Amino acid sequence: MHAPIDQLAVADVLAPFGESRTLPAAAYQSQDVFDWEVDEIFGRHWVCLGRKEDLLGPMQVRAVEVGRETILLSRDADGVVRGFSNVCRHRGHPLVEAGDAVDVRLIRCPYHSWSYRLDGSLRAAPTLTQAPDFDMSAWPLMSLRVDEWLGWLFLDLSGNAAPLSATIGNLEEVIIPYEPGRLVLVARHSYEIAANWKLVAENYHECYHCTTIHPELCQVTPPDSGEDIAPTGLWCGGNMLLKDHAATMSLTGESQGINFRGLRPEGEREVLYLGLFPNLLISPHPDYVMTHRLVPLAPGRTFIECDWLFAPESIAQQGFDPAYAVDFWDITNREDWNACEGVQRGSANRGFRPGPLSPWESTNYQFLNMVAQAYQGDQVRPPLMPQSSRV
Fold first, then answer.
1. I want to staple 48 with a disulfide (CB 3.0 to 4.6 A). Which of 133, 175, 280, 339 is the partner?
2. 156, 176, 193 — which closes off a domain?
3. How far apart are the C-alpha atoms of 289 and 326, rounded to whole Å?
């Protein structure tokens, strides 16, 4: 089913790089388009929920809001994570309120006390358990597809998405030198901004704006550096280089951490910017990995969870303080959010029209390509690399 949006304008987004246009205003302003995205993009693709270890520990459950639904995650003593619809099979009452993880041995409905094991099987249903014709095995919680990749947990609400490995494609070989699975979440900033989720992703995927609004960033990286990486999954991205004096992205260019042990020499002189469709942005640096997880709240409102991950050996250093990385990116993030909110306001103006892309926006072209494919009602395929991409 195609999106309720001007399909001629969508076709313009898919034109060859150099001829294409950005999205029409309805992509950022329309409640109908937003509702369609919740169902058809976030409801039919693998959506990142966060880091497994942060979400819940062994013998815990947690309810998480995803779009208009609340899903229930459980983790057993062996560390296996499962996903369920957060509704009792009796009358549909929510089993757990959304919030922090809670320690449990059984999941008990607060309405009629039906109880479930952490694997979703029904353990007890008062007055029915003893009934000879009541089949306990016929009433488990409704399961949902969850999968883990390098420490991140993903959900497929539809149950029909291609395997997560197909979504990831060759992104794994790009990021594996950073060993994300062993990294530790050290810091987090949460933001709620007055801008559409796609504007956040579009801003992330280009540095055409950097010389204008990011003076700190331009001190440590040339904004016109780097090149795109050809994706085989539903992602887009590339690298940017560090200036000669800079060891990492920080206000001074200095690092307080230890570089990742699996990097090749060129990996120690670059930062990667990788967007896994639709909602996870991964930025590996030589000494830390920063991520942005996007949660659409409304056409003009997005929740952004920004995490900083470090290797255990960095954290083990006496006096280690992640502020050198966190402070730099908090400043840069807020500069970006201000720009995104400006475009959100501008796209509500009746004079707004889709614009052209700069040669510096080839990664953005690929992100918009995936959005436009979805808008046409097509199965989203890996984005096409522009014939002339940034160098």
1. 280
2. 156
3. 11
d(CA 274, CA 282): 5
Span 93-110, average pLDDT: 96
Side chain identity at residue 76, one-letter code: D
Provide the residue range defining the domain that includes 226.
7-40+165-375
Instruction: Tell me: pLDDT of 390 over 70.
Output: no
Q: Could you write out the three-class secondary structure of 143-196? A: EEEEEEECCEEEEECCCCCCCHHHHHCCHHHHHHHHCHHHCEEEEEEEEEECCC
If one counts the domains in the chain, the total is: 2
Share of the chain above pLDDT 90, in %: 96
The mean per-residue pLDDT over the stretch 225-247 comes to 97
Q: Which two tokens stand for residue 382?
A: 């890996």
Is residue 389, in this structure, part of any structural domain at all?
no
DSSP 91-142: T---SS-BSS-EE-SSEE-TTT--EE-TTS-EEE-TTTTT-TT--GGG-PPP
Pairing of strands 270-276, 235-241: antiparallel
Query: What is the model's pLDDT at position 129?
Result: 80
Q: Which two tokens stand for residue 102?
A: 């809670």
* Longest CA pairwise span in the chain (Å): 77
106-119 CB burial, b ≥16 within 10 A, e <16 = ebbbeeeebbbbbe
CATH assignment at residue 223 = 3.90.380.10
Does residue 302 share a domain with residue 202?
A: yes
| pLDDT tens figures, 121-135 | 999 999 998 888 999
Determine, yes or no, domain membership for 308: yes
pLDDT of residue 319: 95
- Is 385 inside any structural domain? no
Task: Please report, for residues 21, 22, 353, the alpha-carbon distance to residue 13 in angstroms, rounded to integers and kept in the order given.
Answer: 5, 6, 12
CA 129/CA 222 separation, integer angstroms = 68
Domain match, 227 and 134 both = no
The number of beta carbons lying within 10 Å of the beta carbon of residue 316 is: 10
Query: Which pTM value belongs to this model?
Result: 0.97
Shared-domain flag, residues 183 and 316: yes
* Same-domain check for residues 258 and 146: no
